[in-house]
Every structure is written in C-alpha cells, then in structure tokens.
Specification:
The chain has 222 residues and is mainly alpha-helical. It contains six helices and no strands. It comes from Halarcobacter mediterraneus.
C-alpha cells in the first residue's frame, strides 16, 4: 500500500480520536460535578461546536481527497465511508454532551431531591461516557478480536444507559407526584439526562460503523 495513503489514514484516525477524546474529557468534568453535587462545576465544560465542526470538516475533506487520489477498494473503502459517517456521529455526541451540561446546571436547583436524582444520574453518565470512550478506542485498533471485544463492551454500556435512564425516569415521575410545584424543574432535569442516553447511542453507532469497516455487512443496519 502506498506510504502517502497510509499516512493519510493514520492522520484521519488521529484527528477522529482527538475529537472523541475532547468530548470524553468534557463528560468527565460533568461526572466530577455530579459526584461532588456541585452543578456550578458544569460551567467548566467547554465544548466549542464551531471549533469541533471545523475539525470535522477538515477530516471529511481529507477523507474525500484520499478517496479521490488513491481509489481504495473493499475493506479500505468501507473504512473511509465509515470515517465519513463517524465524524457526523461525533458532532452529534458533542452537541448532546454540551446540551446536558448546560441544561442540567440550569435545572438542578436546591429544591430538588438531589440524592434521588444523582443515585442513577452518576452511573448513567459514567456508562454513557465509557461507551463513547471505548468506541473511540476502536478507531485505532487493527486487531479484529480486540475490535469485537470493545464493540461488545460498547453495547453493554449502551444497554446500561437505557436501563439507568428508565430507572431515573421512574424515580423522577414519583418525585413529581409528590411535588407538583417542582414538576417543571424535574422534567427539565429528566430532559437533560436524556441527552446522556443519546450520547451512548452515538457511541453505539460509531462502534457499529467500525465493525462494518473491519468485517463488512449491511451499512443500513449500522
């Protein structure tokens, strides 16, 4: 395989990983805020969508340039198509992560039952970010067995986020029946936590795309 082609692929993987790690770092700040029960810490979540969008466009342009210059076949072509879709998934994950930090900080008032909310919100955020981080680890992985292992780990964490969100939704609905006057705040908290479930969903999509790149299959189902 041509050296310039390999260099381009490595550059694409590196830049995709950098975006993913930036989003994951922002989520870790959010996790610390929840663990400390200090929503003011969420102000430190600084995800510039403009900056990330610019980086994503640069990656897409490099992918298109590589496709045009080297006309990859089979597995290499699947990989390039997957990368094009992954940049979009990462932008969506970034938007959800940023929206969570902003909306949760505004909605999480002292009048709410913090213990009941954080009991499931903390593990929800932890699983959501672990799913994203593991999916990003798959980008630079070449070993098919390790890709499969990490893919399964992403699916496990994504399933956890679904279960945890269902639990916290049930808890919050109970709290609302006891404190109707706080229903708006509780619903806004619930809405913000839904963003974490969506981050996990984007991680699952990224993992599926990377499996498609490695082994093929039906892209419509990824």
């Amino acid at each position: 395989m041509l050296k310039p082609y390999i260099e381009n692929i490595n550059k694409i993987k590196e830049e995709i990983t950098n975006i993913g790690e930036e989003i994951s770092h922002a989520n870790k700040i959010s996790l610390s805020a929840l663990k400390e029960n200090d929503s003011s810490m969420l102000k430190d979540v600084n995800l510039s969508m403009k900056k990330l969008s610019s980086k994503s466009t640069e990656i897409d342009n490099l992918i298109v340039k590589t496709l045009a210059l080297y006309s990859p076949e089979a597995k290499d072509l699947r990989e390039m198509v997957s990368f094009l879709k992954i940049t979009n998934e990462l932008m969506r994950a970034a938007a959800y992560s940023k929206a969570f930090a902003k909306s949760f900080r505004k909605a999480f008032s002292p009048e709410l039952d913090a213990e009941a909310i954080l009991e499931y919100a903390i593990p929800l955020l932890k699983s959501s970010n672990l799913a994203l981080y593991t999916a990003i680890e798959m980008v630079k992985e070449d070993d098919e067995k390790l890709i499969e292992e990490k893919f399964n780990r992403v699916l496990v964490e994504d399933s956890k986020t679904d279960d945890l969100y269902a639990m916290i939704e049930k808890n919050i609905l109970k709290l609302i029946t006891k404190n109707i006057e706080l229903s708006k705040d509780y619903f806004e908290v619930l809405s913000s936590l839904r963003k974490l479930e969506k981050v996990s969903g984007r991680a699952s999509s990224i993992a599926n795309l990377l499996v498609f790149a490695e082994v093929g299959g039906d892209l419509e189902n990824t």
